[in-house]
Structure formats: structure tokens, C-alpha cells
Amino acid sequence: MNNRYLEGAIAEDLKENIGIYLLIIISLFFVTTFNVTANDIENSDDDITITTTQDATPVAVATATATNTNQTTNNSLPIYNLFPGKSILLKYPLPENLQNIAKENIILTCNNIIIPFYISKNKLLHAYIAESYFSTLKPYNCSISISINNKNDITNPVINPVTSFDIAAINITAINYPTEYLTVNRKKLNIPKKFLNKLSTEKDRLQKIYNSSNPEPYFQENFRLPLNSELTSKYGVKRIFNKKKNSFHLGLDFRAASRTPISATNDGRVVFIGNLFFSGKTIIIDHGIGIFTMYAHLSKYKIRKGVLVKKNQIIGYSGRSGRVSGPHLHWGVRIHNNWIDGQTLVQNDNLKNI
Q1: I need a surface site. Which of 2, 126, 238, 246 has the fewest CB within 10 A?
Q2: Cα–Cα distance measured from residue 61 to residue 159, given in angstroms and rounded to the nearest whole number
């Protein structure tokens, strides 16, 4: 009697809840089928159709013809040591099954910032990594994401990350830059109010230029210094005027008599020629992939905006224009919106395989 009652109760329960039980069975099937790990993807030869988070929760995406070939772990990544205000050249050999992926579908991210790069003839990914002078010293990783284009969303052309993996670890080490204490006339220290609008306009105009670097490099060789002369003021010097106001010298000053010929430090396109409040007569060259060089306090230009220039080509002559006390050349290097020590750009490895 009890058994018949139990059988009847089970049958009634199955009849009422059959949909729920079927849903549970289907869910268990999909968890068993799709709950892959990062190692499963790394060792797979199949096209990647899903990506996983740390808890291995699958996220559906469209198919891309690529596989994650990353063979390193966070403990075995190549380590780059970087200092505030400096730059390094990161090189990553593309695995064979990433070499046929279109460059626009490869995204390099360092410290949550998308970094431009180029791929050389020998399938090396090259990227210049720059650290802000005002760095927080927090280490970070650089990672590659393989993505596909969503043709139906022109406002978000690159979406749906198929896979992402780290390729390098960046350690930031503090550096002590020197401090100068200067006493100057108060009239020269304070900026007249009538020039504040001019400064604001200049800043906005230049930022638009710095946000529009050519996606590919114009150069095929290493950078050089603009002059072979004494440095009268090094990069990173903190200046304290009249024991109160601080400023930071985020460039290199070269000794140069008036009308000394100034040459381009690498191939590039001239994107700015003009007279700036602080820098005077200035030339800015875009070298591509987020790298710009600035030549300030000139007396005369020898080129025009928009032209392509070659490394060592004379572009102008030194002078004392702008807010300076004497003739010299101020050379600034800007990488990914960070003013960095140009000497580290020059010291980066030779570029023979672009």
C-alpha cells in the first residue's frame, strides 16, 4: 500500500514538474559540454567560438579563425622594467596561428590603454610603451585580444573579444629626478590673464593633433638625437620658482647658437608649424603609432605643414622664440600622450625588419 502510494505520488510529481526536470537536465548537459578552461582553449586546434572568464563562465561570440596559442602563465611572462618618464620597445613574436589574422583584429592593451603597434616582416609585434612622469608606480600586464568586426554596428567597429591573453609584465621602478631652485622676476613668473584663453586654445588644438597619429609607422630606422651638443637642461628636472611655484621640465634642452640647423630625428609627417605661447616657433612631427617629436624655440622654418620628412632632413633653425632667456633647442618626445625622455627612445633596439 505504501509503495503504491509512493509510486502514485512520484508519478503525479513528474506530471506536474516535468518541464522543470527537463530544464535541469538540459542545463547540466550544457555545463558539462561548454565549461572549458583557459588551458582547453590554449591547447585546442579548433576555431575559437567562445571566450571564458576566470570562473570559466562561457560567453557566446561569433566564430573567428584563430586559436589562443599563449604558452605562458602570469608567473612566466617576460618582464620589462620601466621608469617614470621613460619608454621601452616591447617585442612579441606572433604565434603561427595568429600570423594570418588581420592587424585590425588584434588589440594590444597595456594598463587598460589600447596601444598602437606594427608587425614587422619577421612577424614580430613591436610596440612602444611609455610611462608617465607622474606614474603611480603600479605594475601592470600587456595583453593581446583577438576580436572580430560587427558589421551591423558602425559606432562600435571592434567588439566581441574572442580570446585574450597576457604577453608581458611591466614593472615600474621609482626614479629620483633632480630639483632646481630658481629666483625670477614675479612679472615673468605669472601669466597675464589676457593670454589664458590663448593657452587654452593652444592646448585643445594640440591635443587633437596628438589624438590623430598615423596607425602605421612612417619610420624604418631607430631614432636619433636632433643635435650633437651639450644638454643644458635634462629631462625630468623639477623647478621651484621663488620657493613657491613648481614646474617640470619634460623635454631635453640642447645648447644651440641662433640659426643652428635642426634636423628631423626620424621619418614622419609634419603635423604642426606655428608660434606657441611658451614654445615659440614650433614644429611637431608625427612618426606614427602614437609617437610625436617637438622642436621648439626656433628662429625659422624650412618645411611646411603636411609634408613627409626624412630622418636627418633639415626642418628649421634654432633660436630664442617663446618664453626663454637665450637661444637653444627644446626637444620634446610624446608617446601615447606622455612626455617622455627622448634619450630612451633613441636607445631602443635597432629596427631593421619593419
Answers
A1: 2
A2: 10
Q: Do residues 143 and 216 both lie within one domain? A: no
Same domain, 92 and 193: no
Residue 353 resides in a domain: no
Distances in whole angstroms, Cα of residue 183 to Cα of each of 241, 246, 320: 6, 12, 20
Number of domains observed in the structure of the chain? 3
Residue 59: the pLDDT is 23
Cell of 153: 554596428
**Comparing 161 with 256, which gets the higher pLDDT?**
256
| More confident site: 131 or 10 | 131
Q: Among the residues of the chain, which ranges form H helices?
A: 2-34, 38-42, 186-189, 196-210, 342-347
Q: How far apart are CA 248 and CA 238, in angstroms?
A: 5
Asked whether 253 and 287 are in contact (CB, 8 A), the reply is: no
Domain membership flag for residue 324: yes
Residue 101 · residue 162 · CB < 8 Å:
no
Give the model's pLDDT for residue 57.
23
Position 42 in a domain: no
Please check whether residues 217 and 326 belong to one and the same domain.
yes
Residue 333 forms beta bridges with which residues? Answer: 293, 340
In sequence order, what DSSP letters do the residues of 221-269 get, joined into one string? S----S-SS-EEE-TTEEEEETTTEEEEE-SEEEE--TT-EEE-SSSEE
pTM (2 d.p.): 0.75
